[in-house]
Amino acid sequence: MALSYKARRRWSLVILLVGLPLYIGFAWWLTSLLPDLPVLVELLVFVALGVAWTIPVRKVFYGVGKDDPDA
Question: At what angle do helices 54-61 and 39-52 cross, to 10 degrees?
């Protein structure tokens, strides 16, 4: 079932205000478990974690910045 435009806007706010800080804390904790890595490898880990959170929620954010298509 597809989400309406209003529902996607609300969920995107919840994800950004609640989910993203939780994910940042999780990523911080996860990277603290890693041993000392070279700078470039560590940069790749941070880039991968920075992109990874967007994959499951991309459908929610799709078209939210545009005008309401139902209006």
Answer: 40
Structural domain spans, the chain: 5-58
Q: How far apart are CA 22 and CA 4, in angstroms?
A: 25
* The pLDDT value given to residue 65: 84
For residue 68, the SS3 value is: coil
**What's the rounded Cα separation, in Å, for the pair 35 and 54?**
26
pTM of the entire predicted model: 0.79
Report the length, in residues, of the chain. Answer: 71
What's the pLDDT tens digit per position in 9-46? 999 999 999 999 999 999 999 889 989 889 999 899 99
30 contacts 49 by C-beta, under 8 angstroms: yes
